[in-house]
Amino acid sequence: MRGFKLALAQLSVTSSVTENLAAAANAIRKAAQAGANIVALPECFNSPYGTNYFKDYAEEIPGPSTSALSEAAKENGVYVIGGSIPEKSGQQLFNTSTVYNPEGTLVATHRKVHLFDIDVPGKIRFQESEVLTGGDSLTVVETEWCKIGVGICYDIRFPELAMLCAAQGCELLCYPGAFNMTTGPAHWELLQRARALDNQVRVLRAKNSDFERVVLVSIRFQTNAG
Question: pLDDT of 45-103, one tens digit each?
């Protein structure tokens, strides 16, 4: 039996990058003290989420936010799935998740593949593609317990990404998110269950909220006898 503990950090994001990084570091520390081996943060954990914010808050990698994640991973001896940040690369902006091992080494980078474009008349209009560029790569993280497929929020709506991760041996999928309150209540849990059922894997998500908490999940995999 292979087992580990993964913590989902729910954060209340402000307009201050300094405050957001401090909150993330505190959540990682609390999770590690509670016995977590892996800590996952929400989408855009370091800044407000919105097309009007991405350019102003975008950072290159490495940069202040990713350096803080690396340091927190090393200080606490845990893997960190760093939610996401607005990333600046040349003239392009991406919605990017970085993953660190317990030594603080960057082991994976995922650029959100499926950009969130929605237009529900009278309720919500949001077009990530007006500002961001989509990624084009599958992201698989190898740990001593299992392979983890990483996506970001809207990526979960597209079953092919999960299927490809499962085909590469992933037993856990993690999708940091920032679901809205128009479609979110109807789809948040449903999509997680769908991807888990489709591929017979575990699916976990962390999102921002008005209040902060760390949820610890124990995960065990049956080891097949040779």
Answer: 999 999 999 999 999 999 999 999 999 999 999 999 999 999 999 999 999 999 999 99
Q: Measured between alpha carbons, how far is 148 from 173 in angstroms, rounded to an integer? A: 6
Q: Over the Cα atoms of the chain, what is R_g?
A: 16
> In the predicted model, is pLDDT for residue 7 greater than 90?
yes
**Can the peptide bond before residue 62 be classed as cis, meaning omega within 30 degrees of 0?**
yes
DSSP characters over the chain: -EEEEEEEEE----S-HHHHHHHHHHHHHHHHHTT-SEEE--TTTTS--STTTHHHH-B-SSSHHHHHHHHHHHHHT-EEE---EEEEETTEEEEEEEEE-TT--EEEEEE-SS--EEEETTTEEEEGGGT--------EEE-SS-EEEE--GGGGG-HHHHHHHHHTTEEEEE--B---TTTHHHHHHHHHHHHHHHHT-EEE--B--SS-EEEEEEEEEPPPP-
Catalytic residues: 43, 112, 153
Cα 18 to Cα 4: distance, rounded to the nearest angstrom: 31
Query: Residues 135-185: pLDDT tens digits?
Result: 999 999 999 999 999 999 999 999 999 999 999 999 999 999 987 667 777
Q: What type of residue is 155?
A: D
Amino acid in the structure at residue 178: A
Q: How confident is the model at residue 121 (pLDDT cuts 50, 70, 90)?
A: confident
